[in-house]
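Justification of computing resources. Each target in the renewal requires a structure prediction run like the one illustrated here; the chain below, 130 residues long, is used simply to show the kind of job we budget for.
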Amino acid sequence: GRRHRLPVVLGIAAGAILCGMRGYKAISDWACALGQQARRRFGCRREQGRYVVPSEFVIRDCLVRIEPGALDQALATWNQARGAQDDALAIDGKTMKNAVDEAGNQAHILSVVGHESQICHAQKKSAACP
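Resulting structure tokens:
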């Protein structure tokens, strides 16, 4: 198989968890619901002209094998790359009450805002895959 970069897997897992996803299947479903632009922003690899997200197996395998110190380093690197003009980034996710799509999926939102610049570096709304 092909590999996904660790920061991509961790970023997707963090985004999903901040949006209320619990468990590997829920994280995978959240990743599946990401549009192509969001997948590009997370740094997903391209395959046949489309960005692909890691599978549930890859997400689970990475999360159970990662050491806390290595995770801390990856988060620091991500913070440095995404918030070069900010000393810190605020990452916040919410499950929106009563915001349900036609399929009955509840909407989730995630935002990343720079403390100093007050710039919203990323914002994503999604619903779980059926």
